[in-house]
């Protein structure tokens, strides 16, 4: 798998490597499929994680481990959407806004997770070059994927917050292709956010387990 870490081409003076390009193109497709509420978003997300896992395994074990977590969440998302897709008239999941309790839980998990992961990265420097922003992006990605799996409109806001740190961090670390892709992510996020927001207003809200009908 050494070819995944070799240079594909040079763009604006930046060296683009195959794994960076392939993984992020797949990630871009994943986000577009998520906008369309397609079940295929999760297999493509899994494939993106698998490509990056193969590129990092045996070379950057921490980065490989992060991709393993992403793949696990992708499997959960596929299972969740497969289960929920029949609850709406068009055969796709019905977007909804999170409840106040869900938002608080996700914010608390994101904050606590970022601190915990950052300290882990600082304790084992080989896991990350920039512990705090890297932890923020990693935990934010997991929270966003979880919210997406649950069909929450807030997942787009989570992705937007990840992008705000991901774009400058990728350019600073020499991953120019990731930086360019994150800019496109931002545009897709805004379009997807609007689409899910409007659909959530038209779709009947599902009754959550344990909540009064």
Automatic annotation (TrEMBL):
Signal sequence coordinates: none
Domain of life: Bacteria
Residues spanning the membrane: 12-33, 40-60, 104-124, 136-162, 174-193
GO molecular function: nicotinamide riboside transmembrane transporter activity
Pfam families, per database record: NMN_transporter (PF04973)
InterPro entries (alphabetical): NMN_transpt_PnuC
Key words of the record: Cell membrane, Membrane, Transmembrane, Transmembrane helix, Transport
Compartments where found: Cell membrane
GO cellular-component term (any): plasma membrane
UniProt record similarity statement: Belongs to the nicotinamide ribonucleoside (NR) uptake permease (TC 4.B.1) family.
Protein name stated in the entry: Nicotinamide mononucleotide transporter
Lineage, broadest ranks: Bacteria, Bacillati, Actinomycetota, Actinomycetes, Kitasatosporales
């Amino acid at each position: 798998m050494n070819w995944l870490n070799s240079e594909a081409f040079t763009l604006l003076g930046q060296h683009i490597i195959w794994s960076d390009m392939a993984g992020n193109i797949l990630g871009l497709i994943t986000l577009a499929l998520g906008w369309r509420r397609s079940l295929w978003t999760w297999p493509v997300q899994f494939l993106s994680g698998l490509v990056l896992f193969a590129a990092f395994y045996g070379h950057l074990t921490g980065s490989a481990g992060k991709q393993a977590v992403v793949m696990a969440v992708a499997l959960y998302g596929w299972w969740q959407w497969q289960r929920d897709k029949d609850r709406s008239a068009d055969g796709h999941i019905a977007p909804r806004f999170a409840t106040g309790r869900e938002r608080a839980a996700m914010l608390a998990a994101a904050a606590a997770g970022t601190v915990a992961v950052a300290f882990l990265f600082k304790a084992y420097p080989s896991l990350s070059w920039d512990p705090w922003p890297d932890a923020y992006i990693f935990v934010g990605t997991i929270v966003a994927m979880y919210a997406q799996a649950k069909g929450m409109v807030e997942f787009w806001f989570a992705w937007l917050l990840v992008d705000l740190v991901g774009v400058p961090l990728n350019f600073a670390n020499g991953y120019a292709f990731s930086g360019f892709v994150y800019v496109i992510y931002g545009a897709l996020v805004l379009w997807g956010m609007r689409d899910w927001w409007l659909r959530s207003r038209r779709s009947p809200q599902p009754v959550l387990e344990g909540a009064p009908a």
